[in-house]
Amino acid sequence: xxxxxxxxxxxxxxxxxxxxxxxxxxxxxxxxxxxxxxxxxxxxxxxxxxxxxxxxxxxxxxxxxxxxxxxxxxxxxxxxxxxxxxxxxxxxxxxxxxxxxxxxxxxxxxxxxxxxxxxxxxxxxxxxxxxxxxxxxxxxxxxxxxxxxxxxxxxxxxxxxxxxxxxxxxxxxxxxxxxxxxxxxxxxxxxxxxxxxxxxxxxxxxxxxxxxxxxxxxxxxxxxxxxxxxxxxxxxxxxxxxxxxxxxxxxxxxxxxxxxx
Amino acid sequence: xxxxxxxxxxxxxxxxxxxxxxxxxxxxxxxxxxxxxxxxxxxxxxxxxxxxxxxxxxxxxxxxxxxxxxxxxxxxxxxxxxxxxxxxxxxxxxxxxxxxxxxxxxxxxxxxxxxxxxxxxxxxxxxxxxxxxxxxxxxxxxxxxxxxxxxxxxxxxxxxxxxxxxxxxxxxxxxxxxxxxxxxxxxxxxxxxxxxxxxxxxxxxxxxxxxxxxxxxxxxxxxxxxxxxxxxxxxxxxxxxxxxxxxxxxxxxxxxxxxxx
Lengths: 261, 261
Fold this sequence. Notes:
10 strands; CATH 3.30.1330.100; 6 helices; alpha+beta; metal ion binding (chains A, B); ligase (chains A, B); homodimer; GTP-binding (chains A, B); 261 residues; three-stranded antiparallel sheet
């Protein structure tokens, strides 16, 4: 597997055609796309091309508008509040993906409306040159482990899971629980070469053609676990508080009931 | 960045010297290690070399012994109970890393006692050939997203975080919150080429030499977030239940107090 950052991508502006910009950068770089290549595209440039910019004085309002459900909140050491929320894409993360870095002064950027659709449009266009897959990536923190990794929030023409169901290990036992999220791993590999500061928002992954398939493969939306299936659908403090309130009411009612007997 | 699975690794047995086995496989493959290479080594072969095998009829006991703290439990659809626990390494995951796949019949494998130390020993030995870094990887599920990705549970001679503190984005604003966990991203990249079934437990990453440094760089233990700093230190159901019990007692006491007035 080879992974490199595509050099020469210009600053992306609302209305830009990403396929054209990528195709021009690839041509200038001199390494044509080949069948089986996977492009990892930072969601930020997808958002910019799609004009998902709002004024920065609306940042908190923008976060609220993108939020479907508050998962956890905590006061930051330096002031302000960290809001871990589920956004309208189902993705759980800080600030609903509302991004204030590398944007024009006084503006923030929202996530693409439908990153799987964005990936599909881009992949369809680039498939005029070669049968490529497209991942739209974003940077997310995670519970239990410090720091962030890049994950897939959009995907087209590439398998998001390496399905090992029904396969067996080398001792012949079924590998029932292993379902590697290769889309997230591809996004992570892309981040290693793109970096956050280099101004290279596109990585090209070559050598993983076994994961590339039809454009209508399930997208990254299928990675999102439904809250009712999630053991961590709510922050520990938030769940504790909700339980306490319920318990308090029940305890008071129980005491009254006992006293009446 | 190039990433490939090292072919020709034999089945690892207790007492084997991993550095010798890797060096022999590299020599047979014909691509010598060079300065800046990073080896991503599946924890399973580290455990095997270190003899971390216990009898399978002790599996539940082994999980309990490796568990420091139960984070969440849930009944599985197919029967049995999924236990998400923090193990003695601080890592939160299912079954405390106790592994029953690809092990000899009737046995399970525990995680290495100290994966950072294992990585350091291996890197020190391999540095006789070239200045390499070593990541010890394991496969973990995660909240909110289906499937698993490989992460770093041990590291030596390689930076685990790409520290962007104090750096600025292209508009000159400080990148205060971005701290990519490159060790986890390297483990993910390695998993893409190793696969779970191919019998290739070692991946070599070339081209990320900027992350390689002294052997005494902080290890993967520093990735683990302390529970008291973690908004998801306890499952939602578990936290709710604890809150309910506290609330119930408080509600009952409050009712009694009010009635006495």
